[in-house]
Design a protein that fits this description.
Shape: flat
Strand content: under 5%
Distance between the termini: 45 Å
Order of helices and strands: EHEH
Strand order of the largest sheet: 1-2
Number of domains: 1
């Protein structure tokens, strides 16, 4: 399966997360190369385009920062700006504040038994 073919799961109304492979010294794969920038741009552009095509809401959760994972919203600047993309990003901006109360309720600390 190609890198791009693996990203076609958006038909399930979900998106793929992409974890950039970075080999660590001293591991079995230490000599494997990291992906080149140009390949990652192609992959990340396709992740964002897939979400755009399906209207999947991305970047709604507040304060989610996971360094090895590249989320679709992180790739929005890799896609040439056009009307469809501008409207999609505007929709996300309008909906993001509406999602905050939902996440705030669920993110309240609770006691562990």
């Amino acid at each position: 399966m190609s890198k791009i073919g693996a990203l076609q799961g958006t038909y399930l109304d979900c998106f793929s997360t992409v974890c950039t492979f970075k080999p660590f010294k001293g591991t079995a794969m230490a000599e494997f190369p990291s992906p080149c920038y140009e390949e990652m741009v192609v992959v990340m552009r396709r992740v964002f385009e897939s979400c755009l095509e399906r209207g999947i809401l991305i970047a709604m959760t507040p304060n989610i920062e996971v360094s090895p994972i590249v989320n679709p919203g992180d790739a929005s600047h890799l896609v040439p700006t056009n009307l469809k993309e501008a409207l999609y990003l505007a929709k996300l901006e309008l909906l993001r504040p509406l999602a905050r109360p939902c996440f705030a309720r669920r993110m309240k600390p609770y006691a562990l038994d």
